[in-house]
Write a structure and sequence with these properties.
InterPro entries: LysR-type_TF_proteobact-type (IPR058163), LysR_HTH_N (IPR000847), LysR_subst-bd (IPR005119), WH-like_DNA-bd_sf (IPR036388), WH_DNA-bd_sf (IPR036390). Keywords: DNA-binding, Transcription, Transcription regulation. Belongs to the LysR transcriptional regulatory family. With 290 residues, this protein is of the alpha/beta class. It has three domains: 7-71, Arc Repressor Mutant, subunit A; 93-156 and 263-286, D-Maltodextrin-Binding Protein, domain 2 (3-Layer(aba) Sandwich); 157-259, D-Maltodextrin-Binding Protein, domain 2 (3-Layer(aba) Sandwich), CATH 3.40.190.10. 40% of the residues lie in helices and 25% in strands. The chain has helices at 7-19, 22-29, 33-47, 63-87, 101-108, 112-118, 169-172, 194-202, 219-227, 241-246, 275-286; strands spanning 52-54, 59-61, 93-98, 122-127, 138-143, 151-164, 182-187, 190-191, 214-216, 232-236, 250-267. Strands 3, 4, 5, 6, 7, 8, 9, 10 and 11 form a nine-stranded mixed beta sheet that branches. The chain has a two-stranded antiparallel sheet with strand order 1-2. Strand 7 and strand 8 form a beta hairpin. Helix 1 (7-19) crosses helix 2 (22-29) and helix 1 (7-19) crosses helix 3 (33-47).
Length: 290
């Protein structure tokens, strides 16, 4: 049994908290000002905390009020979405998705036609930044472990391959003399240890100096540099499938290294039950990562 105050009181508080006026809240809710004031008083008595600071001409939210309002807005939005889905399960459903730019461009975008065939009712709103603290339905994250306090599922581990332009293929067989041409990817200001991991797997740690070479802030920069003959790169093959198929990049070794980083699907607990989230998650599980 849930221990909750009356839903009416919560709804009255949310409306009042948004407009910070008993009078305006009463107008929006089509009730009297005294009814709004009474509902707020009952809610404050139930919670044992003040939700508003009552000034002479206006209201201000207390810290407790601000905290409750933020949660209630999310909860009422979720209930509204759930009700709309039940009333019309075939309606157009917008899915707000937070995705790293590289994943969005190189993996997700080429597969959007497949998603549309699978779930034609879904309309994606894709973002690569959460600076506005937007409540996203799903987040795809580059990382090593599951995210605490979320439903967190590994979509795929990186599968690193050693590549270069066709023109550099002969030089790649003498990599110990070309270590100044290693191309490195930065993540949060630090080089990803992809070269160290690959060299260890290849048994070349003592022959090739992984600290040398050029570094770039994005995978696209590394990929373009490698295509144009600037050097040798270790790249997740999921992100360069087009370049490998076209021959713009060629592997110079059969050795592949899995992880330790990968792409994770993170969902807040309050979004897990939404039909649109379930459909998107099903599609991700069904589609091949390659």
């Amino acid at each position: 049994m849930r221990s909750l105050p009356a839903l009416t009181s919560l709804r009255v508080f949310e409306t009042t908290g948004k407009c910070l006026s008993f009078t305006q809240a009463a107008t929006q809710l089509h009730v009297t000002q005294s009814a709004v004031s009474r509902q707020i008083k009952q809610l404050e008595d139930y919670l044992g905390v003040a939700l508003f600071i009552r000034r002479h001409h206006h209201l201000e939210l207390t810290e407790s009020g601000k905290q409750l309002l933020a949660k209630l807005e999310q909860s009422f939005n979720l209930m509204e979405s759930a009700v709309q889905e039940l009333r019309d399960p075939k309606q157009r459903q917008k899915l707000a998705l937070l995705v790293p730019p590289t994943f969005a461009t190189r993996w997700l975008a080429p597969r959007l036609a497949s998603l549309h065939r699978h779930s034609p009712e879904l309309e994606l709103s894709i973002h690569n930044s959460d600076v506005d603290s937007k409540l996203f339905d799903c987040c795809i994250r580059f990382g090593r472990t599951a995210k605490p306090s979320h439903y967190s599922e590994l979509i795929m581990l990186e599968q690193h391959v050693a590549v270069c332009s066709p023109e550099l293929l002969e030089q790649a067989h003498d990599l110990e003399h070309a270590d100044g041409s290693l191309l490195h990817i930065l993540h949060k200001g630090e080089r990803l240890p992809v070269w160290q991991n690959w060299l260890q797997a290849a048994g070349l740690t003592d022959q090739v100096d992984a600290s040398r070479g050029m570094e770039f802030s994005t995978l696209d920069q590394v990929t373009n540099a490698a295509i144009n003959g600037a050097g040798f790169a270790i790249i997740d093959k999921h992100m360069i499938s087009r370049e490998l198929q076209s021959g713009a990049l060629v592997p110079f070794s059969e050795i592949e290294v899995s992880g330790p980083y990968g792409y994770w699907l993170d969902i807040n607990a309050e979004r897990q039950g939404l039909a649109k989230v379930i459909r998107f998650t099903q599609w991700l599980r069904e589609i091949s990562p390659d």
